Each structure stands twice: as structure tokens, then as C-alpha cells.
């Protein structure tokens, strides 16, 4: 990859010998954005994110008080980070006297660390130094989570999104992230790869279903929310998240203020989210595009939408999970 906006952890520099040895034994495919992606524990990864996951699996020690936000890419990660950060810090940083709220001057990705990204960039990063309760996010699949995440009483909030909107969001994100690499790539090919599961973090259906069943088996451990419900009833979903996390009583005014501060209109118009880059090289504005439900209609032809619908029907049939659009 050559574009300047491409983050460090999409590259293949700084790989340890251990990662190189493992990679040499893994199935390999050419990706849409990356020239090589590797299949590890059933999922496709860039070399850098794979190394981040390996280090995370080895080193991350979950605490009972931890909160981990889990998503597939482009399913509402940035928004969920902002909402939960504002919720947990509502006494320290009241949103009503909001002139100096951290979210007004800091991109949500800098307030909530991305586990495998941080472990790739800074393998010795001291997660133990984060204030309690520690709030972090990951795209790691349920079976691949570090053992301590599964065995401790830490809480997981999983947010999923209608796969058609998720794909379309990824499509535009990829084009912004690496315009040269993606310019000549046909959307038909990308939809095919997405439906075959050969996309970073994919297959998307395994990711969603594993957390879906985990939330049904252990509702005190995993809370399952959707981008669509968050969009339609942000306040009610935020209260559900707050109750799950044991945040205690929240006044209606506080809920309203947090919902407003974290809305697409509010966050996407802040200077900090319009200009500038994260330290990893990604432009902050790439995380905000339309922020709508059903926006896939502007990008997908009927036949491409039908191709994704067929995959959804095949993979989610009988699961009880229904995507609204
Ligand atoms: N505050 C917010 N409210 C609603 N959607 C938001 C949001 N912030 C970002 N998004 C949307 O969430 C998607 C990015 O997901 P992620 O944060 O997981 O990378 C993008 O979707 P679109 O590309 O459909 O607009 C982005 O616009
Ligand atoms: C994880 C990430 C969002 C997804 C980005 C991504 C999406 C699709 C890709 O296509 S393919 O090469 O697998 O065919 C590649 C990538 C690589 C970067 C991914 C982003 C890094 C941080 C974002 O949350």
C-alpha cells in the first residue's frame, strides 16, 4: 500500500519473527484493500492486525470492571465509543456544561483504545494504566478473544449493522483510505468477496452470529445492540446499555444531552472530526460519511443488493436475528 492516509497497522512493517513464521503457514488471499490477507482462527486479517491480535491474545489481562465494545468494521464503532465514553464519564465531564467535554476536542478513537491496533503499534502499551472502568474496543471474533476476557466478569457491548449498509460503508471508507489501490476495483468483485466472507474480519455472519448466540446464552456478559435501533431510539438504547453496565440512575436530561452530543450531526461537524489525522495516519473525517439507515440504496444496484440479501437469508436463517433496513 502506498497512500499516505493508510494507517500503520494495515502495513507489513514491524512484524515479529513469530508472526512471520505463523503467517507462512496460513491460507492467503489477495484482498480488495490489501495485497495479502491471512486466515487465522477462521477470519481474514491484514498482517499487522493479525500481529496485534496475537499480542492481544497473549498479553491482555481483562479485569472484572472492564468494558469492551465489539463491532464488525463500519457497524457503528465510532458512535458507540462516543456514547459509552460520555455515559461512563458523565459525572467527571457533565455534558450540559459542555464547553470543555473531551468529545468536543478529541476524536472518539483517541478516547477509547482499539485493542489489536494499539498492540500492533505499541506492543508494550500499559493497558493497566487506564482509569477504571477501562473502556476499549476490538473487532476480534468471539472465539478469538483473549482467554481472560471470556473468563472474567468484564462486560461486552456488541453492535451490529445491516450488512448491506455495512458493506456500503466499507466500500466508501476503503476508497477514501486507499484511493489509488481501490480506484480500478469493481464493486461487483467486492460484493462477491464480502459474500464469500473474504474480507478483513470476515466472514461477517460468523462474527455477528457468534456474539448473537453468546448474548443469548449469557445476557449479563454480552449485550447485543444494533446500529438501526441506536439510530431509531438512541435514548432508549443508551439506557439499556447503561443498565447493562450497571451505571446507576441517569437523569432524562443527561440522556438527552449525551444523545445530542454524540449525534452524527454534532460529532461530524466538530473541527476535530473534520480536519486532521489520528496518530496512525487515518484522517478523522473518514469515520463520518452519511450516518443513515438504508443508505445502501444509493450505491448498490438491485442485483448486488439481492446478492447480499441471499447471503443474509442463507447464513442467518433460523437464528432469530432479523436486520431492519
Ligand atoms: N454519531 C454517529 N451517528 C450515526 N452514525 C455514525 C456516527 N458516527 C459515525 N457514524 C457512521 O458509522 C459508520 C462508520 O462505522 P465505524 O465507526 O464502525 O467505522 C459510517 O457509516 P456510513 O458510511 O454509512 O455513513 C459513519 O458515517
Ligand atoms: C478494521 C478497519 C476497517 C476495515 C478496513 C478494511 C476493510 C476491508 C478491507 O478489504 S480487504 O483488503 O480485506 O479485501 C481491508 C481493510 C483493511 C483496513 C481495515 C481497517 C483498519 C481499522 C478499521 O477499523
UniProtKB/TrEMBL annotation:
Superkingdom is Eukaryota
Q: Does the keyword Transferase apply?
A: yes
What is any Pfam family matched here? Sulfotransfer_1
Q: What class of enzyme is it?
A: transferase
Q: Does the keyword Transferase apply?
A: yes
Keywords for the protein's UniProt record, in alphabetical order: Transferase
Organism annotation? Camelina sativa
As for family, the record states: Belongs to the sulfotransferase 1 family.
Q: EC annotation?
A: 2.8.2.-
The record's InterPro entries line, in alphabetical order, gives: P-loop_NTPase, Sulfotransferase_dom
Protein name per UniProt: Sulfotransferase
Q: Where are the transmembrane segments?
A: none
Q: Where is the Sulfotransferase domain?
A: 64-320
Amino acid at each position: 500500500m502506498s497512500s499516505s492516509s493508510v494507517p500503520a497497522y494495515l502495513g507489513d512493517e514491524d512484524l515479529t519473527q513469530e508472526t512471520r513464521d505463523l503467517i507462512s503457514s496460513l491460507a492467503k488471499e489477495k484482498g480488495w484493500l490489501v495485497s495479502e490477507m491471512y486466515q487465522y482462527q477462521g477470519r481474514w486479517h491484514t498482517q499487522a492486525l493479525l500481529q496485534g491480535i496475537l499480542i492481544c491474545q497473549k498479553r491482555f489481562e481483562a479485569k472484572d470492571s472492564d468494558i469492551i465494545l465489539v463491532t464488525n468494521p463500519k457497524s457503528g464503532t465510532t458512535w458507540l465509543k462516543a456514547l459509552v465514553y460520555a455515559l461512563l464519564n458523565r459525572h467527571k465531564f457533565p455534558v450540559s456544561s459542555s464547553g470543555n467535554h473531551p468529545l468536543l476536542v478529541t476524536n472518539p478513537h483517541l478516547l477509547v483504545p482499539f485493542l489489536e491496533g494499539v498492540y500492533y503499534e505499541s506492543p508494550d502499551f500499559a493497558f493497566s494504566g487506564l482509569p477504571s472502568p477501562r473502556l476499549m474496543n476490538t473487532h476480534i471474533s468471539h472465539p478469538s478473544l483473549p482467554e481472560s476476557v471470556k473468563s472474567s466478569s468484564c462486560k461486552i457491548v456488541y453492535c451490529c449493522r445491516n450488512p448491506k449498509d455495512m458493506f456500503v460503508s466499507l466500500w466508501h471508507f476503503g476508497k477514501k483510505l486507499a484511493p489509488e489501490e481501490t480506484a480500478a476495483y469493481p464493486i461487483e468483485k467486492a460484493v462477491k468477496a464480502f459474500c464469500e466472507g473474504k474480507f478483513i474480519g470476515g466472514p461477517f455472519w460468523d462474527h455477528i452470529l457468534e456474539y448473537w448466540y453468546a448474548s443469548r446464552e449469557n445476557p449479563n456478559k454480552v449485550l447485543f445492540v444494533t446500529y438501526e435501533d441506536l439510530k431509531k431510539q438512541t435514548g432508549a438504547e443508551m439506557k439499556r446499555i447503561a443498565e447493562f453496565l450497571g451505571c446507576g440512575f441517569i437523569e432524562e436530561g443527561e440522556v438527552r444531552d449525551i444523545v445530542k452530543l454524540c449525534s452524527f450531526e454534532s460529532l461530524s461537524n466538530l473541527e476535530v472530526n473534520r480536519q486532521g489525522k489520528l496518530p496512525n495516519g487515518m484522517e478523522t473525517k473518514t469515520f463520518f460519511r452519511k450516518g443513515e439507515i438504508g443508505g445502501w440504496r444509493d450505491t448498490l444496484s438491485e442485483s448486488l443488493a439481492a446478492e447480499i440479501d441471499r447471503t443474509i437469508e442463507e447464513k442467518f436463517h433460523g437464528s432469530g436475528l432479523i436486520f431492519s433496513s
